[in-house]
Write a structure and sequence with these properties.
The chain is of the alpha/beta class. The chain has a single domain, classed as 3-Layer(aba) Sandwich (Rossmann fold). It is about 40% helix and about 20% strand. It has a 7-stranded mixed β-sheet, with helices on both faces. β4, α7 and β5 form a beta-alpha-beta unit. Bound molecules: S-adenosylmethionine. S-adenosylmethionine binds next to α4 and β2. One of its GO terms (molecular function) is S-adenosylmethionine-dependent methyltransferase activity.
Length: about 210
């Protein structure tokens, strides 16, 4: 869903940083070869993620929902030189595609791919994170927040994607629509939880920035 006109979206993209060549190629190949290419963050949100990471300068990053690796590479742009990005996805068929593109980047050796259910993998990671990007199944957003929080460094940032869910968070919720129900609860939780301070940014499908206190 577009919250603003296509003309304004184009203007915003034209007046933001260019998409790096490596990412433009990954974007193109995802659209050519992989199912559901709209899941990829894309040029503008990718530049936002890169800028946030450059401001935060994280040592350890966790991404939940790798897909084809686009947002992982954007986040790596701001990672400290000796940093590590852990990224989790449940789809085995994406692993080689991700690795091919990771290895074309300067951060290939610093990116650790994890295959499986994120709720099972996160508790096993013995790492404290400075930056987390939640971008997988919406039904688990509250679970992700609860298992991540004890693994965050103070001042660390949790980014949550798709929190406006094409505007469905404002509409009556169909009883079978678990994703919208959880997202509405999740947005309220982030707003009210005294362990984080939160701003919800109307970027693409909604991107929340929560700072761990
Ligand atoms: C929206 S896509 C991620 C897009 C990517 N972050 C980007 O911006 O380019 C969501 C991904 O989460 C993965 N996923 C869904 N449920 C999952 C789960 N329970 N555990 C781990 N990964 C999951 C999907 O396979 C999919 O690749």
């Amino acid at each position: 869903m577009h919250f603003i006109s296509q003309e304004l979206e184009d203007y915003i993209e034209q007046h933001s940083e260019k998409e790096p060549e490596l990412l433009a190629a990954l974007n193109k190949e995802t659209y050519q070869k992989i199912l559901l290419p709209r899941m990829l963050s894309g040029h503008f949100q990718g530049r936002v993620l890169s800028m946030l990471a450059k401001l935060i300068r994280p040592l350890n990053i966790l991404e939940i929902g790798t897909y084809t690796g686009y947002s992982a590479l954007c986040l790596c742009e701001g990672m400290q030189e000796n940093g590590t990005l852990h990224t989790i996805d449940i789809k085995e068929e994406l692993i080689d595609f991700q690795r091919k593109h990771f290895d074309k980047s300067p951060w290939g050796k610093q990116i650790v791919q994890h295959l499986g259910e994120a709720v099972d993998i996160i508790p096993k990671l013995e790492v404290k994170f400075d930056l987390v990007f939640i971008d997988a199944d919406k039904e688990n957003y509250i679970n992700y927040f609860n298992i991540i929080l004890p693994k965050m460094n103070k001042g660390g940032i949790i980014l949550s994607d798709n929190v406006l869910w094409s505007g469905k968070v404002l509409e009556p919720i169909h009883p079978n629509d678990i994703s919208t129900k959880i997202l509405v609860e999740y947005n309220a939780l982030l707003k009210n939880d005294l362990r984080v301070e939160t701003v919800l940014l109307p970027i693409r499908d909604g991107l929340t920035v929560s700072r761990v206190l």
